[in-house]
Specification:
single chain; six-stranded antiparallel β-sheet; alpha+beta; 3 helices
């Protein structure tokens, strides 16, 4: 009888299985049968309550309020003489014409004089009679000094001694003058007095953050305390500015660290440029994981994803 190759293989496997079963049965005690394999029982299914999923109602347009920037209103150049007093006195209602725009400046006596030898009560009384000239620079003058915000100056208008005062600059009119959540990134800085006379010089553009200054984004005001020196024959000028920085409540614009993970190459006189960036993949169940790389080539293939096996 002639047998084909596949049939011969099946016959051989059957004989081997029978011989194995016979050998196992022979090794067991008399009367016992070999234990056959059976799958493990499946765990009992746990029922949970549920409901049919229906289409959700889309939110109305009123719930998704679109952002609309505040109209930008840059203050014009103005000046006012402000008595400090013992309370919160602003520069918005003093020495200005009736039709003039209010100054975005608030000045308040801090109470303690810098002059030695005076008691706190005498210092407070002296501050209550102090007069301060507040000047707001135009936007053009502020830009000339390297400021993309508000620029103001404070100077005593009387012969009072130097004292500490609280200053607040209202930026509500320019809160959306620039992008990137500009209002939340504003800070209070001081500049040299020459920023008003020779703003082109680099030493006149040095910005020094006012220690302890805060940005109240709800009130849209940056405030802090500064020392206002005595006039001394026309001196004692303090220049302050509201300027943006890289970080705010919405994030940061500071540079990130450069990672050496990617690699690039150029093709010399061909002008070709290639860049590759490896992608980290989770470990494999058995054996080395595959290598995945994002690659760019300026010659032919604009972008591709390649994968390779890391086996040696």
């Amino acid at each position: 009888m002639r047998t084909t190759a596949p049939a011969a293989v099946v016959l051989a496997l059957t004989l081997v299985a029978q011989l194995g079963a016979t050998a196992e049965a022979a090794s067991l005690p008399s009367g016992r049968k070999p234990k056959l394999w059976s799958p493990r029982p499946l765990p009992a299914q746990v029922e949970v309550s549920g409901r049919d999923l229906t289409g959700e109602t889309r939110a109305s347009a009123a719930e998704h309020k679109q952002f609309s920037p505040v109209a930008v209103s840059w203050p014009k150049a103005a000046s006012a003489v402000v008595p400090l007093g013992s309370g919160r006195v602003t520069a918005r209602s003093h020495s200005l014409p009736a039709n003039a725009a209010p100054l975005p400046v608030t000045v308040t006596a801090a109470g303690l004089s810098e002059t030695t030898g005076k008691t706190q009560r005498d210092a407070a009384a002296a501050d209550a009679e102090s007069l301060v000239r507040v000047r707001v620079a135009s936007r053009a003058d502020a830009q000339a000094a390297g400021i993309r915000g508000l620029l103001v100056s404070l100077q005593r208008a009387d012969s009072s001694a130097g004292s500490r005062m609280a200053v607040g600059l209202d930026y509500a009119g320019i809160v959306d003058a620039y992008g990137g959540d500009y209002g939340s990134r504003l800070r209070l800085v001081s500049l040299p007095a020459c920023a008003l006379t020779t703003p082109g010089r680099s030493r006149c553009r040095v910005q020094t953050p006012v220690v302890g200054a805060v940005n109240d984004t709800a009130a849209r005001e940056v405030s802090g305390q500064v020392v206002l020196p005595a006039a001394d024959g026309g001196g004692g000028l303090v220049v302050l500015a509201v300027e943006s920085e890289q970080e705010g409540t919405a994030g940061t614009f500071s540079a990130t660290s450069l990672s050496p993970a990617g690699s690039w190459a150029h093709g010399g006189n061909t002008g070709a440029f290639t860049y590759s960036y490896p992608i980290t993949v989770p470990p494999s169940v058995g054996g080395p994981p595959p290598g995945v790389t994002l690659a760019y080539s300026s010659s032919g293939v604009d972008g591709r994803t390649s994968a390779s096996n890391n086996q040696a």
